[in-house]
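pasting for ref
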Amino acid sequence: MQSSSEQYFEKLDHVRAFAAFMVFTWHFIHAAGVPVGYVPTLPLLSLLEEGHTGVSLFMTLSGYLFAKLLDGKQINYKSFLRNRALRLLPLLTVALLLQAAVWIANGASVQAVAAQIALGSVLPLWPNGAWSIAVEWHFYLILPALLFVVGLRRESALMLIFAAIGLRLSLFMAGWEIHPTAYWTIISHLDQFVAGIYAWHLFRGERVQPLAVLATAMAFVTFYHWFNISGGFNGTQASPVWIFLPAAEAAFYAVMIAAYDGSKLMLPKRLSASVSFVGTVSYSIYLLHFWYYGPVAKAVMHYVGPLSFGLSLLFSLLAFVLFLPFAALSYRCIEQPFLKLRTRYARRASSASSTHHADVSAPTV
């Protein structure tokens, strides 16, 4: 995870890589014939069978990363938003234009397509996962305020999370179908951004107690396996579980990110570099894999036949690896030229003359 100030957080790139794989696998295994709502025997595998949770991991990581980068610094807000636009918009524009061309070729009017794309910056209307980029952008708009509030008193992060839970509860009691609100908007993902910020301020890259990590992991995996058994993403749309699910994901991922970041665990050098590469191109993986996984999954079923859950996971890993050269090409040709245009937007608050600045390629999905 390379910033324009040459700060690099290799472990956080590892987390990005895993989040990208979670989302990719979720799409691939169900396109390859694994029934929606399938329940793996091993509870931990529910995190892959319900791999949409990788989006929540990305967003928790985003909060943690910006809190780490900007702790004790002053932000030039205009430059910050410019850098975020340079990070997100080029590839997003390509992805939306491709989808717009498909819609128009299938008979949609240019006006209707233009309206949907325009409204997608506010409402969750952008297709193929691009909706999450709008949510990320909404987070950027309020990031300085969040950093200021949590920086003054870190426990205020917990109040913000409880406020988000309370808002979802109020909407549910008012008769709203809470699932769309609790997955496709910042009303739910705010929990994760804030939890990431809180995790940095709570641990600051220090070692997290192993018992705390183990207890958090066991509690969340048990809860998520129950969620999987109860119907998962597609079978709980009317359930109040979505009031609390975003906060549960936020707590788990925040602890895991902080624990890995503060641990002495090091992958072998070559393996670490390979996983970091996946993290570097994860934005391209996410936005472009929607054009890839379906045809590949159909081809596998055509030649191999129906796949078990275990075989679908193996083929998803193979398909993921084979997609990396395309993601790398997208990164090099579409993302990287614009990343070079970023400018420094933050300086140490302790000294007006400080020349230490920070920027980052955000962990977007």
